[in-house]
Design a protein that fits this description.
mainly alpha; 3 helices; phosphatidic acid transfer activity; MDM35_apoptosis
Length: about 80
């Protein structure tokens, strides 16, 4: 397997790496029809909690997300919405 990307929150890199490794192994089993159950749910939940916590600590992330939601470029053909 190739290298995985770093987390958006550096403090979550280890939990992301653990989840990515688990998912890669599970996906191979899934493709072979050997597993349908999400075997990595607990690791994903740990990673998600870490990212959410990091976002709460970093108020700039929230502002950037809100700005992006207001712009909604994906809903407007990739273009920023016109502001009044």
């Amino acid at each position: 397997m190739g290298q995985s990307m770093s987390s958006i929150a550096p403090e979550c890199n280890e939990s992301k790496k653990a989840y990515d490794n688990c998912f890669s192994q599970w996906y191979e089993k899934f493709l072979k029809g050997e597993s349908l159950e999400n075997e990595c749910k607990d690791l994903f939940d740990t990673y998600k909690t870490c990212v959410q916590s990091a976002m709460l600590k970093n108020h700039n992330v929230h502002k950037n997300l809100e700005d992006a939601r207001e712009q909604a470029p994906f809903e407007n053909g990739g273009k920023h919405r016109e502001t009044d």
